[in-house]
Write a structure and sequence with these properties.
Layout lengths: L3 E7 L11 E7 L13 E6 L6 H5 L12 H63 L2 H8 L1 H4 L9 H21 L5 H6 L1 H28 L21
Parallel strand pairs: 1-2, 2-3
Length: about 240
């Protein structure tokens, strides 16, 4: 028998008992054969030796020693073993609790980051307003922004929020294929650039509007395509 970790109880054993044992506990309640414990390198064996025959020469003393059983020592070992078993039983629950704690901490960090980014966007808009108009109200708010930010309430239409989320999901799914992505961080941190681009496009459209009107006056209705016909969408004629 080459025990490596089990706890065994036998009422007697033949020759070469616990040979090459490496772990576990073996209790022998009766007689043993010769050469007990040969090559034994681990674990503990307890042999009931009332007549002293075992200590008289049946144990191979090459790698082991014989000691008197100390009940206090055995109780300490049992205590340690019980604690280890409890830890092993509770280990999965502890790991799960740790994982949940980490996920909660990550969620709090993400929420805090979103609040910071929202604050930066709002502050950038108010800052632009103050620099372009010289508004005293904006300057007063900016001078105590860390406190005044708490007095703002964000009004978000439900459908608009749902549409923004759908667009963000679509961009995430198609970012690798198209190679064109919009950086949320850049949008939130540098809103003046975005607003500047929008204002530039608006100015260009305004500048092109007079020329477009002249073109529409000079071009006959028959040459304007489907949108230039003289009929209304409902079928009626223009007056």
């Amino acid at each position: 028998m080459r025990n490596s970790g089990a706890n065994l109880v036998v009422e007697g054993i033949g020759d070469h008992g616990c040979e090459y044992m490496t772990g576990g506990r073996v209790v022998v309640l009766g007689d043993t054969g010769r050469n007990f414990g040969a090559g034994m390198s681990g674990g503990v064996a307890y042999v009931y030796d009332k007549d002293g025959a075992f200590r008289g020469g049946r144990c191979n003393m090459e790698l082991v020693e014989l000691e008197q059983v100390d009940e206090k020592t055995e109780a300490e070992w049992l205590k340690v073993r019980t604690i280890m078993m409890l830890l092993l039983m509770l280990l999965p629950a502890l790991l799960l609790a740790l994982l949940l704690a980490l996920l909660l901490a990550l969620l709090l960090v993400v929420l805090r980051l979103l609040l910071v980014l929202t604050s930066l966007l709002l502050k950038a808009i108010v800052t632009d307003h103050a620099s372009l108009t010289g508004s005293g109200v904006a300057e007063r708010l900016l001078s105590n922004w860390s406190q005044e930010i708490n007095n703002f309430v964000k009004v978000m239409p439900t459908d608009y929020k749902r549409a923004m989320q759908a667009e963000a999901d679509w961009r995430t799914e198609n970012s690798e294929e198209s190679g064109v992505t919009t950086s949320l961080a850049q949008l939130l941190v540098s809103p003046p650039k975005v607003f500047g681009s929008a204002m530039a496009m608006s100015s260009a459209a305004s500048a092109a509007a007079p020329g477009l009107k002249d073109f529409m006056r000079a071009t006959p209705h028959s040459q304007r395509g489907p949108t230039g016909t003289g009929t209304r969408p409902g079928g009626g004629r223009r007056r």
